[in-house]
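Structure, all two chains, one model.
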Amino acid sequence: MLTLEVVEMELPLTALREGESGVITSIRAGFGWGKGGGYGLQKRLMDMGLTPGTKITVVKSAPFHGPIEINVRGYRLAIGRGMAEKILVEVQK
Amino acid sequence: MTEKKLKIALAGNANVGKSVIFNQLTGLHQHIGNWPGKTVEKAEGTLHFKGYTVDIIDLPGIYSLSTFSLEEIVSREYIVDEKPDLVINVVDASALERNLFFTLQLLELETPLIIALNQIDMAEKKGIKIDLKRLEEKLGVSVVPTIAIKGKGIYELLEKAVEVIEKGAAKPSVISYGEEIEERIRRLTEALGKIRLKYPARWTVIKLLEGDEQVKKEIYDLSPEILQTAENLAREIEEIHGHPCPTVVVSERYEVAGKIAREVQRILPRIKPQLGERLHEVTTHRVLGYPIMILIVLGIFNVIFVFGGYMSEFLNGLLYGYEPLFEQLFGLNPLKEIIWGGIIEGVIANITIALPYIIPFYLILYILEDSGYLARAAFLTDTLMHKMGLHGKAFIPLMLGYGCNVPACLGCRIMETERERLLTGFVVTLIPCAARTIVILGLVGSFLGFYWALTLYVIDLIIVFLLGELAFKVLPGEPTALIMEMPDYRLPHFKTVIKQTWFRLEEFLKISFPLIIVSGLIIKLAEIFNLLEPISRFLNPVTVTWLGLPEITGVTLIFGILRKELTLVILATLLGTTNFQEVLTPLQIFVFTLVVMLYVPCVATIAACSKEFGRKKAAMISLLEIILAISVGGLAYRILATLNLLEH
């Protein structure tokens, strides 16, 4: 039988190992209501389905500080490491 | 009787087979242009069906109708301003949830809509079965299953489209958000009163809450108070949810998309991983991925150079074989010189570069793109591209650059922001294209050997990275991170690949062909009026004193701007031999080629640059590269002479 043990801890997406899953809690980019700066990128991430509460699984982490491949809403998405560091997740073991 | 006209737009995410459907629908009757005033591609085609002339327009592949990229703005403006009779939303059945998120936005825009549920075969392979009837009920729009790559469902799609247009589309479902949002939508709609933008009222209100920059600005111009109300209401939602209002709106929309997806699809566990899955594993593998990529890239270059070199020589021989015949017809006089040397040789040059080098290069590249490999290459090279302030996607225009800088410049459009387009454009123009490769192989490769030619490529790459990094630091603005879907591997659709190659070739011909003809004429006239020597004498301090080259090379460098491979031809003409060893020292051959490789690409590339980035920036890039080439050339001359590595 599968049991889900939810560990109450916020970590950046980059802290997840390959195969580990987490639920997005927030995206820590400079976000104001409609202000410039990080708004565009954060909107982009959300448009791609990375909204708070979404479960994501790290499939692969490229070497040399490269991007991270995740599985979200049934498809594969590559995210640059710098951006991935700003995505906070709650780890599910 | 004149046929009735219909306008149908194709919209959907990237990588859902939209262009395949477009090709299946329109066949040969299509053309690619730009949106007025914007450098976003616009593919249009026509077809005739049941007494209608149907114009099909292929909107760019996007994930949302917000204002993140030019593509998104262009798409939503098209739908709102041009009011197509119908929008066909192409949906990838194997990633239903994310695709439906986009569909919901089209529904909110209240445009007449049907859905082409594409790649149902790939979805089935993934174990996904979709209940079409339920999906139709949930969305309130017709759904036609298609396997575009095999041509399945295309006729039915067209039939359904015309039927829906004739009967009028059924009223689509309205997606409802949570009550606390709906209440504020109602209040804001009331506040909006009679004020109308060109968008539907509900959409305007939702976009205001979503913080859409463009809608906010348009509303502000009409009534700043409404914007104030919107901001207050958004803050209320923010307080209730603990997340910024735009996040809440997008989350809820995705929630609806997810709910529909879960209700209409059944996912069966798969027994074994598909071939595509395994290919993905290997090609993005942390160890294996890199050698595979290098092998693929080297493989391409090898094929191109071997095949291209052979073809180019063959075509050259064939076409120049007509010169005696031409002489017989026209006789040996200045007119013949101008027509043959000025015009026909230009045509030959175009043919011997385009056919043997550019066509096969793009053919292979688009096969790789259509199959999904380029996304993997972008994934692997992201770190490397960050070294010059770009991200993985820039790998694609950089690769295009090795074929020809003109399409590569235009290919910079895949970068998201203006700043990145410019940065990529700058770097791309430093990549040795097929024409420069001809010079490098023809001079350094033939007379100094393979390793010296390779040295030039390595020097070029080093310069690309150094300058890229410098430009990245100098240019204001923030770097953008890689956010890229990695589509499943699939068999490339041959017709689509051919079309894409043809469109690139067309762009190359449109920009470069007239310029090449004109430049050929200018050179011939300069020759006839004995302008070559004075030009060379004028450049003496640079060529002779600083670069250590013979004076006569000055004129070749000037005319090389018109066409890079011409430097080789003019050099041979002026020196009176193609055995360059006799007249140039190995060091001179190396320095000359180095300078040719680096200074402004060519007049066609400058034209492409100024089309994409404006005249001022194109001029800046050109000037910078001339200074760069002369500096590096002079330095190389002194260093190599001191080290005595090459005979001088």
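The radius of gyration of chain A is 13 Å.
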